[in-house]
Write a structure and sequence with these properties.
Blueprint (H helix, E strand, L loop, with lengths): L1 H23 L6 H7 L14 H24 L5 H18 L1 H9 L6 H27 L8 H13 L1 H4 L8 H16 L5
Length: 196
């Protein structure tokens, strides 16, 4: 029973850190702010977490795990490239929409990680980007997408998707799935091969 309480408290701490890092920024959030948010004394927080950097590391890695878990099965499937690209965009939107605050931290606050962790996290982001770029490369080779710079096209697509946390409203008129399909249409219309 004690392990369950500790796990529950740690999750409360992680959620409080996500909310505060998103609202105030990582640097402006103190350990005391996090402790206060979950009803602990400042020093008591260290019974559950080692440091504020550890919390940020956990938050961005949970998000990264979500992106990989959504994309990898699509990339490894035997679907057509066109279908994979559409599903990859929809899946990426789904991960962001599932936790907008964590997506904001994943997109911006990771820069505050300690040096070694920042490099490790950047390598994970690069790996994810390479998987996405591979789909775009296949689309170009197969003639579905216009011959263009695959790196720039990947950055264009992921940049458009990653900023959804700024404006997407889960209680708005579009579900995450609807939004993913709409974003896929917009991205494909921008990249689709034109005939003259």
């Amino acid at each position: 029973m004690a392990a369950e309480i500790d796990t529950s408290k740690r999750e409360q701490i992680r959620r409080a850190a996500v909310r505060l890092f998103c609202q105030q920024g990582y640097r402006a959030t103190s350990v005391r702010d996090i402790a206060d948010a979950v009803g602990l004394q400042g020093g008591s927080l260290y019974a559950h977490v080692t440091s504020k950097d550890d919390l940020l590391w956990e938050v961005v890695n949970v998000s990264a795990d979500g992106f990989f878990a959504a994309l990898r099965p699509i990339v490894e499937s035997d679907r057509t490239t066109v279908k994979k690209l559409r599903e990859a965009i929809i899946a990426h939107v789904g991960v962001i929409a599932e936790d907008l605050e964590a997506a904001a931290i994943y997109s911006t606050e990771w820069r505050h990680l300690s040096d070694g962790r920042r490099r490790e996290f950047a390598a994970r982001r690069d790996e994810y980007e390479a998987m996405f770029r591979g789909l775009i490369r296949d689309g170009i080779r197969q003639g579905f997408l216009a011959p263009t710079d695959e790196t720039f096209a990947t950055l264009f697509a992921l940049s458009a998707l990653n900023w959804l946390y700024q404006w997407y409203k889960p209680d708005g008129r579009l579900t995450a799935d609807d939004l993913g399909k709409l974003m896929a249409d917009y991205i494909f219309d921008g990249l689709r091969r034109r005939t003259t």
